[in-house]
Amino acid sequence: MKKIVNVATPAVCAVALVLSVVAINKTNAATASPAPIVTSAPAGQPVDLTYAAEKALPSVVYIKSVQNSKIQTVEYSDPFEDFFSDPFGGFFGRGQGNNGQKRQRQVQTPKRAAAGSGVIISADGYIVTNNHVVDGADELTVSLTDNKEYSARIIGADKTTDLALIKIDGKNLPAITIANSDDVRVGEWVLAVGNPLGLNNTVTAGIISAKARTLGANGVESFIQTDAAINQGNSGGALVNTRGELVGINAMLYSQTGSNIGYGFAIPTTIMNKVVDDLKQYGNVQRAMIGIQGTDVKNYVDAEKEKEKDVDLGTMEGIYVAKVVEDGAAEAAGLKEGDVITAVDGQKVTKFGELQGILAKKRPGDKVSITYLRNKKSHTVSATLKNEQGNTKVVKNADLDVLGGSFRAITDAQKEQLNIGYGLEVIKIAGGKLKDAGVPKGFVIQKVNDQSIKTIDDLQNVVKEASTSKEPVLYIQGIYPTGKKGYFAVPLANE
Fold first, then answer.
1. 219 vs 3: CA distance, rounded Å
2. Hey, which residues are catalytic here?
3. Dist CA 165 CA 382 (whole Å)
4. String of b and e for 278-299 (b: at least 16 CB within 10 Å)?
5. DSSP code, position 21
6. What angle do CA 134, 136, 137 make, to 5 degrees?
7. pLDDT tens for each residue of 189-218
8. pLDDT in tens, 321-361
9. How many Å apart are CA 440 and CA 428, to the nearest integer?
């Protein structure tokens, strides 16, 4: 189970953020005072949750992910062997023995299996889950509540929001009804539906405890907080309202123990819908950036008070702009350090999670109105949101074709000749990014962007990651057939 230790709580209590497959632990919902059950309960009164459970259960699936056993080459150092092969290496700066090269050996990784939940969102087999449920999986098996099993494939995944879209081949599947998560209210009853601790088709009840929470676990966060019990295996499952409609994808537990003595957090459907649309249309999420670094006004004021400084920004709600990113949307709109953002598109913004929630629904090129305070005076400007690369173009995953080369893993003879343990040889250069950068045929690629390249899949993954990053460049390290080391910078963005 993945855990992120957070020392944000006062005193000595270590708090764990427990991710999905690993998943989401939760405290039991508070028990309400006995009250008559009515068909249409007044606001604030207990309601009959049986309808919601019956409606949502068929749409929530059990996901088993398997990582197959693999042979991996690992680097290691034997200090005793290093000493006998080069007893004075440390004194004369030669480093390790074996001519300064780290040794490699092959190890076999064990087969690993994990489990989580998912939600059917369309009758033809699209299922939403958490990225960490399917990340690294070689095989995915989906089981429905009627025990039918399907093999699934990953359509796309987004680490920043911890969401993934997978697909099974089925027809007339029980798709859930998706509600607008913006409409949920604090105190509203909800159900968490999933497969915790191997107990499939489990339903727990609680309330919405808070909205627009940020925890620092993902890049984009605007969580719905709930006290419905969530445990390991709930990740990727459904958070539904009293009508059985989806309002969030369960993702995380905030707990002092790693068990459900804590709060659960779900990704709102407003963010989920945008991510799903992007993954279907583009293969990756189109991230809109406002171009600032900042924090909640209260956090800023409290920090200044600790420095014994008095601060009066004219409000205690909003986003304090600590930095305006060069060439970003905010700079073009005229925002400056020290401004306080109070609304976006007329929607009040009191904390950073609310700002992230709004931006997560936007795409580069979208225009937004930003209301802000400067010297306690309110101003409103229009800004055009940009992507991570500083423009408004659609960002798509690149594949190996953009490099214009062909590759193969080096042979044992090459390993011995060049005294290396792995690498990809460039066996052909056509028109493409490698030719533009001067990478020659016969060059052996060993690292790209500080990641070891042992297989073609390794290279493909690095290319995809770099192509959608803020700096779409491949920094290639390798070795010529003569044994000389070489370095190249290969830009991926089109000018």
1. 16
2. 132, 162, 235
3. 33
4. bbeebebbbbbbbbbebbbbee
5. S
6. 60
7. 999 999 998 899 999 999 999 999 988 888
8. 999 999 999 999 999 999 999 999 999 999 999 999 999 99
9. 9
